[in-house]
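Final report, Chapter 2: Outcomes

The project's central promise was a pipeline that accepts a single protein chain and returns its three-dimensional structure in a standardized token representation, suitable for archiving and comparison. That pipeline is now operational. To close this chapter, we reproduce one record exactly as it appears in the project archive, with the input sequence first and the structure output second.
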Amino acid sequence: MNKTKVKKKKKMKLWKKILLVILLLLAIFIGWFIYKVEKNGGGVSGMLATLAGHDENTRKNLGELNFLILGISTDQTGVDLTDTIMIASYNPANQTAALLSIPRDTFTGTNPSRATAYDKINAMYSRKHRPDETLEAVNKITGLDLQYYVVVKTEALIKLVDVNGGIDFNVPIDMDYDDSSQDLHIHLKAGEQHLDGDKAEQLVRFRHNNNGTSYPVEYGDNDTGRMRTQREFITQTLKQTLKAENMWKIFDILDIAKECLETNINFDVAKDYVPYAVELNMDDLITEVLPGENTNKNASGTWVFVPSKTGTKKIIDEMFLHRQSSTSEEENKKLSDLKVQIINSSGDDNKLQIALHEIKSLGYKVDTINSNTVEKTMIVNLSNVEEEEMQGIKDTLQKGIISNNKTEKSSYDVKIILGKDYEERE
């Protein structure tokens, strides 16, 4: 055997050994990776978490992420109307999420009786293009301490829907509206359908038809219905976006975010939440609207939405502060089953409607009847309603004398006798 063949054999043996070592190292790496993926929860979420350098303790140490969403319509140059205002919350540790809509007409001034259009929360961003000012106003209204905001341009929704290949959605009503000044033309039929980006924009911007009709009362009329549609469409969009097969579209989604989003959320913060968001069950998303009332009781006739202080505190506690509270199921059932009867003895049906709206905003079941007029408003505890709850009802009405009458046989827990002294909100 010549020396050349010997050298070739030695080289072949050497390469086999190197290849064997490489395969062994690869097998060890794959085994380690699979082990880490399983430790991180398995599936796509576990794989993404592992690729991000997470371990099994990362998720529980992340904490809840709360931020403000501002949906900006950019159809009119320089106007940038805030069509959507929401508080969003996501907790990867227990996979809970919430969306709270803030009505665009929410009053941000000091005296509703002197309100103008500039006192509405949707006017704040369009004046200075400073989302931090809207963030500060929302914190003042809700009592939260939100640090983050995300400004979403109309184009982002359109492009995200199109990246998904469209979104399946049940349009609640026929929509027929035209506004040439905004180049806005909405023509959608009610029913389950596949919406592309253009139709999605029509859906979320709809308020009323050309003939003045809007959403039916049972759905939530005008802005209430609009906010409900926005929340439900966002839910469906997220549900159809956060799917395992869409992880390959991540670069397209990131390009949309880079082009159409403005946020103060640091990328290093946001990326830690992404691996767990893909396994969020959107059917468990909690959605609500800020409680309060619409009023135009001012010199200019401007309609504004005035939040209910007690109702807002209650809903903020439930959605963002105490979702993990130790309140027993029995106590929760007692609260949700609380039945209230409002007896209208004010002689004014308008006052009844105001009081009904306020008490419903607390989440109670309410019935009403009319009766002979009386001077004073009374709030009667007919069962074992906690003193704090009774005070909450009084604070919401801003009127009333609390009394107890547990001997009266009634199917209601609380009876409110609305007197002539009850006044509409200032």
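Archive annotation: The two ends are 107 Å apart (CA to CA).
This record, like all others produced under the grant, will remain available to the consortium after the project formally closes.
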